[in-house]
Design brief:
36% of the residues lie in helices and 32% in strands. It is an alpha/beta fold. The strands form 4 sheets. Strands 1, 2, 5, 6, 7 and 8 form a 6-stranded mixed beta sheet that branches. The protein has a 4-stranded mixed beta sheet with strand order 12-13-14-15, sandwiched between helices. A hairpin with a 2-residue loop joins strand 10 and strand 11. The longest helix has 30 residues, at 293-322. Residues 1-9, 17-23 and 56-63 have low confidence and may be disordered.
Amino acid sequence: MKWLKGCMIFLSVCLLCGCWDNREMEDRSYIITMGIDKNRQSGRYVVTLAPAQLSAVSSEEETQTEEKAVSVAGDSIASAIRQADTYSSKQVYLGQLKTVVLGKEVLQDESLFKSLLDELERNQDISGKIILLGTEGTAAECVNAILEADASTGLFIWDFYKNTAQDVAVTTKLDLETFLRELRSGEGNSILPKITVEENKIKLGGGIAIAQYRFLDSLSDEEEQGVLLLKGQGKGAVIDGIWENNTIPMWIYKNKSKLDFWEQNNQLVCRIHVSIAGSAEGSSLESKSLFQKNSIQELENIFESIIKSEIENTIALAQKKYKTDIYNMAYELKKQNRTLYEKYAPQKMIENMVFEVSVDVEIRTIGVVD
C-alpha cells in the first residue's frame, strides 16, 4: 500500500501541472510553494522554497525523502533560486509552482515589489495561474506553516481555494495574471488575499490593500467580505439578522453586482445595485408565522439593510479612510463612459464621487429544524 500512496502523490502533482521535459523526476526538486521577503542584510530578497515531498519507490522498500523549506538570499529571484541549488543534489524546478506568498516588507518597497512582479511574469517556468497571497508578517513563516499543514504535496492553499474558499466568503482566489491586470488598469491598486499564521496554524481571510504598488493596509475578514459583496463575489457569506428577538443566519448562494455611472450637478454619481439570493436558517424559523408572505418580506428587508450598511462601510474605507480607489472603480467607469472617465478620473475621483447603494435580497429557501 505504501508504494500505491507514493504513486498517488506523484499522479496528483502530474495532473495539476501537466507535462515536463525529459529530465528524470528524481533529479529535480519540485517547488510547490514559494515565499518572498525583503532582505535586511545582503541581497535584496530572501526567497523561501517548499518542495513537494515525493517518495522514492524501490522493489525492496520505500524511502521517504524528508525535504524541508530552504531560505536563500539573492539580488533577484533567479539568483536566489540558483543559490538554492547549491544546497541540494537536485535542481530546483518552478514548473510545478502553485502558490507565492509576499511578505509585508517587500510589499512596502515599491521598487522591490515591481521588480519581483516583473520577474514572476517573465519567468518561463512560472504559470500565470499561480495563486498570490500577501501577509502582514514574513512569507517564510507562512511557507513553513503551509508545508507543516501538508508535508506530502504542499498543496494546502490550492486545495483550500478549490474546496473551502467558496463557502466562507472572507477571501478569494487571485492568480498572477489577474493581479497584474488589476494593477495595470488601476494605477497600481488592488487587493491581495491575506494569509496569517496563528499559533503555527494557517488562517486564510481578509486582504492586503495595495495602492500605487505599495502596501496600504490590512483588511479584516469582515472588511474583505464587504469587498466581495460589492464586487458580486460574496457567495458563501453568512449574514446574521435579528427577527422577533432571534438571531437568524442567512447563507448567500448567489450574489451579483452592477455599477452605473452618470453626471449630476457637476458631480460623478455611481449607483451600486447588489442582488442577493439566500437561504434563511435556524431553529427559530419553526414559527408558522414565518411562512406568511409579510414575514418573509420583513426578513428580506432586515438583510437588505444589513448588507447595504456593510457595503457603504466598505466604500467609506476607500473614500474617507484611504482616499484611494483600491476597488478599481475607475476601470469600470472607463469601460462604461470614456468621456466621464477622462473628466473625473483618476485625480480624487473616489473622494468626490457620490454613491447610491441599493440591495435586493430574495430568500428562496428556509432551513427549518425539525
